[in-house]
Each structure stands twice: as structure tokens, then as C-alpha cells.
Amino acid sequence: MTYTVVGLLGRGGMAVVELAVDDQGRQLARKRVSLGGSAQQIAMARHRIRREAEILASLDHPGIVPLLAVEDDGADVVLVMPRMVGSLADRVCQRGTLPPSEVVAIGRALLDALATAHRQGVVHRDIKPANVLFDAEGHPALADFGVAITRQFTPGLTVVGSVVGTPEFIAPEQAAGRPATAASDVFSLGATLAYALTGRGPYGEGEPMALMSRAAHGQVDPLPRALPEDLRRSLGAMLDPRPERRPSAAAASGGPNGTKVDLSPRAVRGEGQRGKRVAVVAVIVVALAAVVVTGRALFKPSRATTATLASPPPKAAPAAAPSTTACTPLLYLPCGQTSPASGTDGSNCLSGRADFDSVLANGCEAVSDYQPGQVLQGGQPLRANLVPASAVDTFTTQVSESLLNLCLTKFRVTITAPPGTTDKVEVIRDGKVLASATSTNLEPATATASKPACFESGSSAVTIQVSAVFGQSSEDFRLVSSGSW
Prior knowledge:
Blueprint: E1 3-11, E2 15-22, E3 27-34, H1 39-57, E4 69-73, E5 76-82, H2 88-95, H3 100-119, E6 132-134, E7 140-142, H4 172-175, H5 182-198, H6 208-216, H7 229-238, H8 249-252, H9 265-269, H10 273-290, H11 303-310, E8 353-354, E9 366-367, E10 382-384, E11 392-401, E12 410-416, E13 422-429, E14 432-440, E15 445-450, E16 458-470, E17 477-483
């Protein structure tokens, strides 16, 4: 490949990115990586870069940034790639959070790319906003497979016991030191899309070590209720702390629930782009015809679009044959069933309902028993559940204040989470969180709040807020308050 360097695109701590033009007039990015350290470390770095090139050579998808060439230039290594015009991190930094429609479009493209990688045994391990790049037309693509693992290239490239990933977007199992899997990539992509919507990662804000600790304990923050319900439910499934409950990348994009490694010779060599597109359409048609759905379809196309993809051109029927009506199956309303499953509209759960058991036949079996406006009375237990799991229940209470108490007494709220879950309670006054506590698996936890102002008297209106940290259950949590100011 011959090209001419015509400008500078960027400069970082270990690399310079140059703008080049090849002999066909195409713009390219040349990333010059300066290697340092011992001879062994330099050799390992070169091996890692060349392994990334081999991985990318096996992938052929418009949603994956290709590495066109790897060249040695003295002590440096030069990576040659198509020119991209910015990352998702840049876009959020410059424009603020993105509208849901834009995030859905990005999610569909990246999930399809991720499904392709997973079918060929490639796990990215470090999906984050900075690794989602856009071309000149605005199409997104996954970049930086430098720490990816595959069935062919895994030994000796990662220090034993080390954790690979970025704290803000890492999957809980990765943060806990367990091997990354395809499900880990799904979590990180969900975290990346949630960041595009909210400007925050799933573990909130803080120092990297604190975020890594929250990640290792599966302390995923609930998504804001202001997000569209379908999108919140879709991302919530991808951000489930338990990897076995997350959808595959294919299922999340609305396709078949299968991203098992494809060991066929054609998959190992890498297919041509046209062949892959034909294969994707064929898989969608077969999946819709078979109506085999083992997980929720996330970022799925509209009913009208699905019908267009799945329905073949009409054929002239014999004169004596009766006319037939095409059927487009829905998640909770398969063809042949006259009414949608309980608690659904056929496609989604109704408000205040959730599908916690993932059994499509019984619909959205979990029912919210939360009643807005409930008051937490001192010493009297209050019970409610968190359905759906992204729900945030709020209650009010009056806390008496005595001038004689000064700041010597405390107001307490004790929460007991149902089995298999972790729930958080917060004591809030005037928009400020005074205290919080987290209960796990029937173990009570108490939030203890000091008096906000030592010389106040009378009573204060206080808000008690409960949200899920880990797990989901239709069983009730228990609240009880005591003390005063």
C-alpha cells in the first residue's frame, strides 16, 4: 500500500495519528505507536498488535473498524485504518446526551456487529464510548480489538489474575476477576449506550477503584425512569449483573438467540460482505417463521418493518384456494394465539408489570403492589415491591424535631430486601440525601440520619426512596422507621 501523509489528526501519550491519502485518493488514518520498555515487553507489544490485525482480518462487518495494515517503522509500529471522524465519547462531550432514537440506531448497528464477532469466537473485552467510532456519514463501528480474545489467540497475552476493561463500563464478572465472555461484551455495550443517553456509567461517578469495587459487587444503578419504557427495559436486560440472564447480542438486536461460535471453514476464513448480508436476512426470515424466541428482542424493528423483511412476495393462488392472511408473530402473541399473554399488549409488558421468569407463555407475571402517596409511620412496617426492577418507590414521613435534642438524636429507616436481591434505601430532605443503606438477601440494613439543623423544632417532611441494586423479585421489601430529631 502506498500513501502520502497530508496532515496530523491527533497526538496522545504513546501515539501520533496522521492523515494520509492512498494512491486511489482514499483518506486513511496512520496511527504511529511508540513502543518502549525491555526487549521482551516490546516484543510482546508487537505480538499483541499483530494478533489484533489477525483478529480483525477474520471479521468483515460494516460495524467493525478494519485494520488495513500493520507496518514496522524503526522502533515504531504503524497501524493503517480508514479515517474515522470521532468517537461516541467525543459526541457526548460536545453535544451532551443523545436522543433515544439516535441511541437505538447506534445500538442496532453495534449489536449486529458484536453478534458477528461472537459467532466467530471473538470477545472484545473493552467496549466503551471511546471505542465506538463514526465514519464521515455518521455510521458507528466498534474499534480497538487490542485486548480481544479468540479461540485461536489467548495464551500468554494477559497477566494471570489481571483485570482487563475500563472501570466505568466493565461487566461485574470481569471486575471480579472472572474470564470475560460474550455476555460481558453485551453488558459493556449496554453501559456504553446508557452513557450516551444519560452521561453516566452504570456504577455512577467516582474514582476508578471505587467504580471497580461497585462493579465487582454488581452494584448497577437503576436507569432513569424518564427514559422510554421499551428502551429502559431493553438496556436493563443487557445490564443485568448476572451474565446468564443477559440476552445474546443477536437476541438483543431482535434476531435469533444464538451467537455460538461458528467453526465452519467459511466463518474462520471470513465471508465477503455481500454474503454476510444475505445470510443475516436469511437467518431473520427463518427465526420469524420458526417463532423460536428464548429471550426478549431488544432494539427490535417495528412490526411493519419486520413484516416487510419476513413476508415473501405474494404468489397467485389457485382459483379454488381460500385466501390467507399473513401473520407476524409478536413476543407475547405468537401466530395462532387469539389474545396476548397475561399482563402484556403482545409486544411489551403493561405498566406496573414485569417478566421476571422469562417464560413467554405466562406473560409478565410480576405485578407491582406499590401505591403512590403511601406514608411511612414511625414503628409501623411498610411493605412494597420493586416491579419492574427499574422502579424507584418513594414514600413520605414526618420526623418530629425538638429544640432540646440539639443534634444528639437520630432518625433511622431499616430496610429488609427480599431473597436473592439487594435493595437500597435513601433518606432525603429538601433534595439532599441525608443517609442511605443497602440490604441483601433478607439481611436488614439501617440508614441513620442526623438532624439537618441542630436548633430546629417542629417536624420535617422527609422522603424515603427505595431502589434495586442487584436482582429482581416480585416479593416485598420491608421498611420500618424509628427515632426523631
